[in-house]
Design goal:
Blueprint (H helix, E strand, L loop, with lengths): L2 H15 L3 H5 L11 H18 L1
Length: 55
């Protein structure tokens, strides 16, 4: 088993044990797989701007 497979297996077990895992990551659903820190930061910044504009 590779390190990546072990990580995936661990992650799957943690998610099933923790029902809140999806809720914790829901703010990242629009971020593409493989996105880096900059893309994630930009996405979160844009999302915050949209939320503040709605208020």
């Amino acid at each position: 088993m590779t390190a990546e497979e072990k990580f995936d297996e661990q992650s799957a077990g943690e998610e099933s044990a923790d029902g809140d895992a999806d809720a914790e990551r829901s703010h990242l659903t629009d971020v593409e797989d493989g996105a880096g820190c900059t893309e994630i930061w930009e996405h979160l910044s844009e999302r915050r701007e949209e939320e503040s504009d709605e208020e």
